[in-house]
Amino acid sequence: MKKLITGIALSLSCLVGSSVQAAQFDEVKIKTHAVAGDVYMLEGAGGNIGVLATADGLLLVDDQFKPLAERIEHAMVNIVNKPLKYIVNTHFHGDHTGSNNHFANHAPIFAHTNVRKRLSSADDHDHAALPVVTYDDGITIHLSDETIALSHYPSGHTDGDSVVFFKKANVLHMGDLFFSGRFPFIDLNSGGSVKGYLANVQSIAKTFPKDVKIIPGHGDLSDMNGLQDFIAMIDFSINRVEQAIAKGLTLEQVIEQGIGEKYKSLTWNFITEEKWLTTLYTDLK
Asked: What's the chain look like in SS3?
């Protein structure tokens, strides 16, 4: 069991670590999707990016990998050619913070306190890429006529997760507290928790407007209906694995039993059905 979890952690480090070679990104194109109002989603490799594009400047939510920084910047100025004013990191993983060292030359980075702690704990960290404004519960940023509320949710995907709500546009960027149309990654080695993750997304669903548009950390642009489907899947998964544990099933037997027909299609290249079940079993055992 520990070997399987270690495998997940190693897969993550390969996906988001600084050792990722620039050549892997040669063919990546940054796609721009209009969401609502002045808010856009950029899709490339790694976590989805949110952009607030106003006449007074730009705000960037997450920034993928370092080799993509100039392409991300080009996509931003193609929306509106204005200076970057603020950067937000929804959590510390490298597929959301990899271009920090590029964009930090232009604007301050905002993030939860634990994001700075975790980024700075890496032996090869770049001090210039660290968040310079940190908070414990949340903070509000004002840009042009938009109000951007950053809210921390504890012990979910990691211990430093934030969601970003653009109030006027009615758009919510959830970072990796939402994987649209796929199984989520819950980083148990970095303060993540299966039941904490469920509690967080349930709270989010109750807190924000029912007609909000949602930028997920990974996957297609979504809405509250999509989030409710995601919540139902996680709740089902927890109950299924808890029942298996109560019957004395081993991890191998839980994997053999599988997640069931309804949700097996949510497997993807990083979090397969086996990895999702392994995460559940490890945290719930």
From this structure: CHHHHHHHHHHHHHHHCCCCCHHHHCCCCCEEEEEECCEEEEECCCCCEEEEEECCEEEEECCCCHHHHHHHHHHHHHHCCCCEEEEECCCCCHHHHCCHHHHCCCCCEEEEHHHHHHHHHCCCCCHHHCCCEEECCEEEEEECCEEEEEEEECCCCCCCEEEEEECCCCEEECHHHCECCCCCCCCHHHCCCHHHHHHHHHHHHHHCCCCCEEECCECCCEEHHHHHHHHHHHHHHHHHHHHHHHCCCCHHHHHHHCCCCCCHHHCCCCCCHHHHHHHHHHHHC
pLDDT at residue 2 tops 70: no
Integer CA distances (angstroms), 14 to 9, 114, 249, in order: 9, 22, 31
Report how far Cα 128 is from the mean position of its chain's Cα atoms.
22
Report phi then psi at 144, rounded to 5: 55, -125
Structural contact between residues 103 and 131, judged by C-beta atoms closer than 8 angstroms: no
Q: Model pTM greater than 0.70?
A: yes
As a residue count, the chain comes to 285
Using 50, 70 and 90 to split pLDDT, how confident is the model at 74? very high
Per-residue pLDDT reduced to its tens digit, 94-125 = 999 999 999 999 999 999 999 999 999 999 89
- Give the chain's radius of gyration (CA, Å): 18
Res. 7 pLDDT band, cuts 50 70 90: very low
- Identify which of 167, 150, 76 has the alpha carbon closest to the alpha carbon of residue 115: 150
Cα gap 249→167, rounded to integer Å: 47
CA–CA separation, 262 and 68 (whole Å):
36
Write out the two tokens for 230. 């995601």
